[in-house]
Write a structure and sequence with these properties.
Pfam families: DUF4468 (PF14730). Keywords: Signal. Strands 12, 13, 14, 15, 16, 17, 20 and 21 form an 8-stranded antiparallel beta sheet that branches. Strands 3, 4, 5, 6, 7, 8 and 11 form a 7-stranded antiparallel beta sheet that branches. A hairpin with a 5-residue loop joins strand 18 and strand 19. The protein has 2 domains: about 190 residues, Alpha-D-Glucose-1,6-Bisphosphate, Chain A, domain 4; about 170 residues, Pnp Oxidase, Chain A. About 25% of the residues lie in helices and about 35% in strands. Helix 2 packs across helix 4. The chain contains 8 helices and 21 strands. The chain is of the alpha+beta class.
């Protein structure tokens, strides 16, 4: 009886320890130094087309907010990409609310009998009381084993980001699994209505529930390029063999060797987009975007404003450049954040030197890095009809060339 009594007293601690174990060493997977969560959902009875339609429906329902958006879909490849933007709430009361915004890229690829999901490019914006601007973090600098754990225990601040992120990833993977399980159940019922059994809903990744469709880890694809602390801390990018048509003063590098600190530069208004139609060229400073791999292609995405004069050029252009600058060009970057009217002398007055790439795109020689892109899609960020003229749009492009000084 005493043993049972002591076991009863210890039970809450045992359950808590089991729950905490879910967030400890190995809970945040890293691939080549990048945080990448991935999952394979097996569906032996379903075709690529069936899985694609199911996942597109799920993604359309979930990513339908002003900043949540399905940004890429290609039925013949079974490919879907979504930009996630939502809150992780740490604590909430009548007097206080502690939460962070999390942004990420969700990649879905469907083939016959299988669906692969991958989440990468995770970054946070955390509002704090002691400053006006939010603190910005990337997953690689904030929730990894090396940063968020000490003696296999969660540190207080990065630990809550780690737990909140893992819980969100669990929810997304479970929701997607239940969507496919429901389709499998419906298919089985149609084939054999007498013997078909109901598919149990998955309620938690850690719960002892065995779904009808087994779920197993997928070998992660190349993850979204993530930020590191400073430019100086970056490893020297791998330079490609000498190539023709490289702008003077630059060296060509592989897309997967783009320095990770450009994510931070994108957030700090150190990136410009330059677009030309042959007769007219315009440029603007952007403050949000990312780079990575989607469907075996290196891609870059950025947020543009429809109210800017450059918007019409972006609409009609098939390619463009993204260029990155040091703080020495802060005045030029700030001055061109809000170019809502046409100014034929703006390039000349900027003090920057316009150059032309071998593909006919424009950039500026003062940039320390230039990324040349082929446009894949341009979609309204809020996804509503009759959107206001100053609404934001998501520009997604395939990276064609990368040049670094």
């Amino acid at each position: 009886m005493k043993r049972l009594f002591f076991l009863f007293l210890l039970m809450p601690g045992i359950l808590f320890a089991q729950k905490e174990e879910h967030y400890l060493a190995g809970a945040v997977p890293e691939v080549d130094g990048k945080v990448v969560f991935s999952k394979t959902i097996k569906a032996p009875s379903l075709s690529q087309e069936q899985l694609y339609e199911a996942m597109l429906s799920w993604a359309g329902d979930y990513y339908n907010g002003e900043k949540n958006r399905v940004v890429y879909q290609k039925p013949e490849e079974g490919a879907i990409a979504c930009l996630g933007n939502e809150y992780i709430v740490f604590s909430s009361s009548a007097l206080s609310l502690d939460r962070t915004t999390i942004n990420y890229l969700m990649r879905i690829v469907c083939v016959d009998q299988r669906c692969d999901l991958e989440i990468s490019g995770i970054r946070y914006e955390y509002n704090v009381s002691y400053q006006k601007q939010p603190e910005k973090y990337v997953a690689e600098e904030w929730i990894t084993d090396k940063i968020a754990l000490r003696n296999n225990k969660l540190l207080r601040v990065p630990g809550k980001f780690r737990k909140g992120t893992i819980d969100l990833i669990d929810k997304l993977f479970v929701d997607a699994t239940n969507k496919i399980n429901g389709l499998v159940s419906a298919s089985a019922s149609a084939a054999a209505p007498v013997t078909a059994a109901a598919v149990p809903a998955v309620t938690s990744q850690t719960a002892a529930v065995t779904p009808v469709v087994p779920v197993s880890p997928v070998v992660a694809a190349t993850p979204l390029i993530a930020a590191t602390t400073t430019a100086a801390a970056q490893a020297q990018p791998e330079v490609l063999p000498v190539q023709a048509n490289v702008p003077a003063g630059y060296k060509a590098v592989a897309a997967d060797k783009i320095p990770g600190n450009i994510i931070r530069m994108m957030q700090n208004d150190q990136m410009m987009i330059t677009v030309s139609n042959g007769q007219e060229t315009d440029f603007a400073t952007l403050s949000s975007g990312g780079v990575g791999y989607a469907f075996s292609k290196p891609v870059a995405f950025c947020i543009t404003e429809s109210g800017k004069h450059i918007a019409s050029l972006i609409e009609s252009a098939s390619s463009y450049t993204l260029s990155f600058y040091t703080e020495a060009y802060r005045d030029v970057l700030d001055k061109n954040k809000d170019n809502r009217s046409k100014d034929p002398d703006r390039i000349q007055n900027s003090g920057l030197t316009l150059i032309t790439t071998s593909n006919g795109n424009k950039a500026f020689s003062e940039a320390w890095m230039i990324i040349e892109c082929k446009k894949i899609s341009l979609s309204q960020q809020n996804g509503t009809a009759g959107a206001p003229a100053n609404g934001s749009k998501i520009l997604l492009g395939e990276i064609q060339n990368v040049w670094i000084k």
